[in-house]
tRNA (cytidine/uridine-2'-O-)-methyltransferase TrmJ
Amino acid sequence: MESTRFILINTSHAGNVGATARAMKVMGFADLVLVAPRFADVLCHEEAIAMASGAADILARARVVGTLAEALDGVDFVCATAMTPRDFGPPTHEPRALFSALAARPQAPRLALLFGSERYGMSNEDVYRSHAVLSIPTHPEYGSLNLSQAVQLLAYDLRQALGGFGVQARTPDVTRADAQAVQGLLEHLQAALVDIGFLDPQAPRKLMPRLNQLFNRAELTQEEVHILRGIARQMQKRSSGAEP
């Protein structure tokens, strides 16, 4: 299933071909086949290359064939895409559930995902060739997806079924302020609050302990302590009439 084939049938717009290539590449898929597109040279069309945005290699390896039968050569399991279930034909599935079931088989099949024309979708004949119909769960009052959007959603669901990719998380390089630094900040801030008349030292009303708890929850960094002490310093300058 890593080598799943994405097949676009009678595609009209070059931009959708490029956007499809991009959607495939970000999810780690590379096998793109076009069946009788509107323009025979669509893979080298300027708009297709522009919309591929870094996935030009997918376009370079893609193939254009004349019939769906040619496009399905070597495929074991075919999934058609349709917005609504058909009265006759293969069963309709939610994509993620079906992909997970296929990936769990002892020997996962070589998969093909079929996408119809932007103008009229998939023909009944093409749907009848398929083992399953995929219906992306959408709002019941409006389920129309752009071609490349549909490709992106299915490519994502398929990648998740295959284990997904790890998130490239970046851990910020921060130095947490120690308890002594926080206490120094509190003392400085207390003096500044008294200077501007916000804190009455004769009736503090637990203001400073509450700020202490706030700073503890925030887990201040050393840089943040410096910033807050700088603010306290400016408060004191203003209250004394000194130039900032």
